[in-house]
Structure formats: structure tokens, C-alpha cells
DNA sequence: TAGTATGCTTAACACTGTTAAGTGAGAGGA
DNA sequence: TCCTCTCACTTAACAGTGTTAAGCATACTA
């Protein structure tokens, strides 16, 4: 019963390819709009207009607006994970790896402020959504895992006074996130030079951790 | 022309009192709803329903929804400022004052998560609104000023290696904000014990700053 | 008592995310 | 070739949003 259908498989495959292509078109259009104007300022109708389909078509490919957003974030955060993995691969001094990992995290956030907002700042907290829960674990959480490895390496090399891997990782994350999110969401505040602030944070935290 | 009216001033004053009372009623109703259910999940119509007036009445007292929000935040943040000023008054060791100021900041954020969200996380960034710009300076910025004083005291007492007051203040703020905002906006993440994380951050930053 | 200012409401506009119902082209089988 | 049925897509609508123009009634002034 499987072979019987093979003769007509071509069109089915073609249609599936076309569906996948449209899905990508939606993602591309939505990403561009979201990143340019912010999630809240872009309506489903605007996205639909951009791809020249009716608004309801989007709902054939994504459950709702939030799902569309998460699909985009997943894509983008793959980039961060890749960069952070590259950093930890050509690793010499574990502390230097950690330092550069943190910098990569913050730089990434500042380079894609709207993506960062979407995943770590706004974070549309739907109540009782277990699917979303799992999805989050595969996104920014992978970046967290990378950071965790960096911290673990430092602790294993006995570079730090504090030995609670989870606590130190979360603190480093909070440090990076604090700077990133403030710089993004309060751009009019009279900040000191951005790179100085970032370096000061990372260096101070690491100095404070050293034995 | 001023005295002529005095005979009839009573009613005018009464009406002004009543207007002020209604303004407060709106603020109280909105605060309760915003804090309980979050800014985005509360409509102007809901606020109006609660005070038993028509929705448009609110617009006679507040320019728009965001202004209503900012008025509430102003009120609430007076509490934080007061607490932080109290801490710096009975100050012995400047480092201890700074430490306790930071803790007060984070504790405040965790106690009023929706207020904190409104002022420092969501921060409805209206484009080209200069009035709002000024208003912000009188709100959370006062708390920033307090933190700044604490940092300045430490630097003047030659307790810190780094002597750039602004940079250190902004770093301390980012540290506190990072923890506060992450704990608020990702409540499902497997955090280590909250107080431990807060203390670790503050202690590590201060340790890293010491000469 | 007539007229006006004031405080509030009604009704509407232009949007939002989302869905139920309908359309129409093309594939599959006879 | 013709018929049927599937399925990608659209139309129209719902229920809600923030906000405003216009109108009404009460209370104060002259």
C-alpha cells in the first residue's frame, strides 16, 4: 500500500515543498517587521500584507502571533549558540573563554535588540502553556547551557572561590542580562561608554569570583 | 479682581476637591488592576467599570493609558526612595550602606513585580515624547541618584579600585536590575534560592570593586 | 431667570488577534 | 473525459482595544 502511491508522489512532494517555502516567507516577513518596528507594533494583517496573502493564511502555518514570534527567535538564537560554541572550542584559559562568552552574549543582544526583547524582556507569559515551556528550553536555554559549561570549566580549574556552578552561572547571566536589557530598553539614559560598562561588569564579576 | 471672587470661593474649592478625589479613585482602581493583572491585560474600560464611570471620563484626568501608568509608578517609587534614603541616613560603613541599598532595590522590585515591570522592563517607549522624558527623571531616576550617592561615598572613602562614579553606579544598577528582571519575567526557570542569588551578585560585585 | 461653563456620557472610529464558513483550483479515480 | 473530493486560501465577522468628537444635563454666574 506504500508502493501503490509512489507513481503519483511527485506532485505531493512539490506541494509540500511549496508549503514549506511559504512558511519561510511568513517567517522572513515577520522577522523583518518585528525587528524593525517591534513585536507589539506589528499586526498580523501587516505581516499578511507583506507576503501578499490574507491574514488568516498565517494561521494555517502558525498557531498564533506568539508562536510566530518564537519560531523566529529559535532561528536567531541558533546564531548566538553557534558563536558561543565556537568561542568555547578554541579555548585556552577557561576564564578568558568565559569572559568572551559573556561579551558575545551582550553583543548579540545589542545587535538584535528586538529579538532580545522578544525572548528575554517582553516574554509574553501565556498562562498554562506547556508546549511553550518546552520550546523555551531549546532556545535561549541552549545559550544558558553554554555559559554554564564556561563557568564549570573555571570552577573545575579551581579559579573561583565560589563553587556552586548553578548560582555562579545565574549570576553571570543576570549581570549580562542586566546591562543588555537596560541599554536596550532605556536608550535615552546618559550611559557611560557602552563597551566600558560591559567590560567593567564582566571584569568586576570575575575579579570578585577569583580566590 | 481676586477679592471679588472670594465670597463664592467655597464651591469652587469643593469642586476642586471632588475632582482631586476622583483622580485619586482612578489611580487607586488602576493601580490595583495593573498590579494584579498586568498593564497589558487591563483595559481602560475595565478601569472605568471599577470606578463606575464611563471610559472617557478617565481621559479628562489623564492624557492616555501610559500617563495613567506613569502616575502610578511615581507614587509607588516614592516608597523605594524613602527606604533607600533611610538606609543611607543611619549609615556607618559606606560599603554596608551600598550593599543594603542594592538589596532594598531588588527586594522592592520582587515585592511589586508589576510596578517594576512597568517602569524598568516593559517601559512603553513612546517616540518623541519629551514630557515623559522629564517625568522619568523624577521617578526611578531618584532611586538611581540614591544609589549614586552610595557609590560615591565608597569611592571617596577609597574603598574601591575603580573610581568612575557613573560607571560603577550603572554597573551596580545593571547587576540589581538583571537579577530582579530575570526573576520577575522568567518565574518558571529553575533558579537557585533567590536570596542566595541576590547576595552572591551584590557580594561578588563589591568584592570585585575592592582594592 | 437666562446663559454659560463644566463634568460626564453616548456613539463612533480605526484598529487588534482570531475563527467559522465558504470558494475555487487542481489531484485522483472511473 | 468527467466527476468528485481534498485542501490551500479567502471573506466576513466577532469581540475586544485605545481614543475622540459631539451632545447632554447639571450647577454656577450674571
Keywords, separated by commas or semicolons:
homodimer; 211 residues; mainly alpha; 74% helix; disordered N terminus; DNA-binding
Short description:
Two copies of one chain form a homodimer. Chain A is mainly alpha-helical. Chain A has ten helices and no strands.
**Helix and strand pattern of chain A:** HHHHHHHHHH
Given helix and strand content, the structural type of chain A is mainly alpha
Largest interface, C-beta closer than 8 angstroms, per-chain residues: A-B, 38 and 39 residues
The largest β sheet of chain A comes out as:
none
What is the oligomer described by this structure?
A: homodimer
The count of helical stretches of chain A stands at: 10
Which descriptor suits the 3D outline of chain A? elongated
Detail the poorly predicted runs of chain A: 1-9
CA radius of gyration of chain A is 21 Å
Terminus-to-terminus distance of chain A: 69 Å
